[in-house]
C-alpha cells in the first residue's frame, strides 16, 4: 500500500517536472505562452515558480529560478522515497 502511494506521488512529481520544462521551452517561442495551452501550464506552474523568482533575481535576460525549482523537485522525489521506505520498515 505504501509503495502504491509512493508511486502515485512520484508520478505526479514527474509530470509536474515535465510541465515546468514545457513552460521553460514555451518561453523560447514568440507568443507561445499566450496560447491556451501556455496559459493552462502557466496557471499550474507559476505559483510554484514565483517563490523561487523572489529569491533568485534574473541575470540579464536569463531566469535561473526554474532550474532551482527543478532541483527542488528532484530533491522532493528523494524525500518521498525515503519517507516511504521508513514507513514501510516501521510496519
Can I get a quick summary?
This protein is mostly helical. Helix content is 78%, strand content 0%.
- What is the overall number of helices? 3
Could you tell me the mean pLDDT? 93
General form: elongated
Largest sheet: none
* Quaternary assembly: single chain
Tell me the strand percentage band: under 5%
Helix proportion range: over 70%
Low-confidence stretches: none
Q: In whole angstroms, how far apart are the ends?
A: 11 Å
Order of helices and strands: HHH
What is the count of β-strands?
0
The rounded Rg comes to 16 Å
- Structural class call reads mainly alpha
Could you name the key traits of this structure?
mainly alpha, single chain, 3 helices
Question: What report would you give on this structure?
Answer:
The protein has 91 residues and is an all-alpha fold. It is built from 3 helices and no strands. The longest helix has 26 residues, at 65-90. The model has no long low-confidence stretch (mean pLDDT 93).
Amino acid at each position: 500500500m505504501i509503495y502504491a502511494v509512493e508511486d502515485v506521488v512520484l508520478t505526479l512529481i514527474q509530470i509536474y517536472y515535465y510541465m515546468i520544462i514545457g513552460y521553460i521551452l514555451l518561453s523560447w517561442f514568440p507568443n507561445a505562452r499566450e496560447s491556451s495551452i501556455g496559459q493552462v501550464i502557466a496557471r499550474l506552474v507559476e505559483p510554484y515558480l514565483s517563490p523561487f523568482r523572489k529569491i533568485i533575481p534574473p541575470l540579464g535576460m536569463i531566469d535561473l529560478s526554474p532550474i532551482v525549482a527543478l532541483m527542488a523537485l528532484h530533491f522532493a522525489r528523494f524525500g518521498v522515497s525515503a519517507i516511504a521506505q521508513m514507513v514501510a520498515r516501521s510496519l
